[in-house]
């Protein structure tokens, strides 16, 4: 069976999602939404960096794309600085009877206990009204800290603690808004960026901790956040911007699922703008990795390295996009409503092994 799909945005993640849709034999690209006139009217292949034209041209006309009644929208538009607007977009798609896989807002990958019912219920109502499904995922939050740790726990006799970590050098991550405005790199250590404002870390990654707890039947007492920043000892340049000595250049944060006074499920990020920074913090395998540790009987540690043309940052974008696109058929066939990772069957790279 072939499913008709619209790609919504062609930015850092979207252009890789577009390539993934085109590569999938069970998917037909029906349309592409873009946010500005510089991409309007261009063939999808050009926006995806492919040579062979698809015959599908991008448009800024959202209503025209919804009128196509596709089976699914792959939504990868930036939402970090427009959370509620993005939620309204998703509700519009669902009311129109269109299934959605989305990379954001990330708290929707498992919102229960993280955001109030006043946010969740209207989304579920929109989905039920349109008879459609919404699934939000990616790589982190996403398969690096939902299916990977849950797979490891299936081989456990006893579980004492789970730690899911992203250990990355972000110096090649080409998203200045995220790096500087949201994460606060290059700013004074006393100036807290959006990401580190009270409650933001637990909003963004508390969903990871709570989903693992729900899947493992663990009742948490609380979810807490902690962070530490370190300065650049000398000037750096990242994404074409100078990082002055003494300004923020390394970040470590933890979101902790607490039970009986101890952290039992931990989401941790260790982000550096240069591999020599913060030598005492945990180090990645290779240039960057996602690490899952299950402490108990037995102890497990899984380090997932990822590269695309030697760049781990690019690989993370490709992996995020492909994860969404891989799930399109399963989401279309699923029940109506807001889905989580544990609601879906195993999704694979079916059809991607070529002669």
UniProtKB/TrEMBL annotation:
<keyword id="KW-0560">Oxidoreductase</keyword>
<protein>
    <submittedName>
        <fullName>4-hydroxy-tetrahydrodipicolinate reductase</fullName>
        <ecNumber>1.17.1.8</ecNumber>
    </submittedName>
</protein>
<feature type="domain" description="2,4-diaminopentanoate dehydrogenase C-terminal">
    <location>
        <begin position="146"/>
        <end position="348"/>
    </location>
</feature>
<dbReference type="Pfam" id="PF19328">
    <property type="entry name" value="DAP_DH_C"/>
</dbReference>
<dbReference type="InterPro" id="IPR036291">
    <property type="entry name" value="NAD(P)-bd_dom_sf"/>
</dbReference>
<dbReference type="GO" id="GO:0008839">
    <property type="term" value="F:4-hydroxy-tetrahydrodipicolinate reductase"/>
</dbReference>
<dbReference type="InterPro" id="IPR045760">
    <property type="entry name" value="DAP_DH_C"/>
</dbReference>
């Amino acid at each position: 069976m072939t499913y008709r799909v619209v790609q919504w945005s062609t930015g850092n993640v979207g252009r890789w999602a577009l390539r993934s849709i085109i590569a999938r034999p069970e998917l037909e690209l029906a349309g592409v939404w873009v946010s500005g006139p510089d991409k309007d009217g261009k063939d999808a292949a050009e926006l995806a960096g492919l040579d062979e034209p698809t015959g599908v041209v991008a448009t800024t006309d959202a209503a025209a794309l919804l009128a196509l009644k596709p089976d699914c929208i792959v939504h990868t538009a930036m939402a970090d600085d427009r959370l509620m607007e993005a939620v309204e977009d998703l509700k519009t798609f669902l009311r129109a009877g269109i299934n959605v896989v989305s990379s954001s807002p990330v708290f929707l990958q498992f919102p229960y206990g993280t955001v109030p019912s006043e946010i969740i219920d209207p989304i579920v109502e929109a989905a039920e009204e349109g008879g459609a499904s919404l699934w939000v995922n990616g790589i982190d939050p996403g398969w690096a800290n939902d299916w990977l740790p849950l797979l490891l726990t299936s081989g456990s006799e006893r579980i004492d603690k789970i730690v899911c970590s992203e250990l990355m050098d972000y110096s090649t991550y080409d998203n200045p808004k995220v790096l500087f405005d949201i994460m606060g790199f290059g700013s004074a250590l006393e100036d807290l960026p959006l990401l580190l404002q009270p409650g933001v870390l637990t909003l963004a990654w508390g969903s990871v901790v709570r989903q693992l707890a729900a899947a493992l039947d663990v009742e948490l007492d609380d979810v807490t956040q902690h962070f530490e920043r370190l300065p650049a000892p000398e000037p750096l340049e990242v994404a074409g911007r100078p990082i002055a000595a003494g300004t923020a250049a390394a970040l470590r944060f933890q979101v902790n699922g607490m039970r009986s006074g101890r952290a039992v499920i931990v989401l941790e990020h260790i982000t550096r703008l240069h591999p020599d920074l913060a030598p005492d913090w945990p180090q990645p395998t290779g240039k960057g990795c996602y690490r899952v540790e299950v402490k108990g009987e037995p102890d497990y540690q899984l380090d997932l390295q990822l590269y695309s043309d030697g760049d781990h940052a690019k690989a993370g974008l490709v992996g995020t996009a492909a994860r969404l696109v891989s799930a399109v058929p399963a989401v279309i066939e699923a029940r109506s409503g807001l889905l989580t990772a544990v609601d879906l069957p195993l999704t694979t790279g079916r059809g991607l092994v070529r002669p």
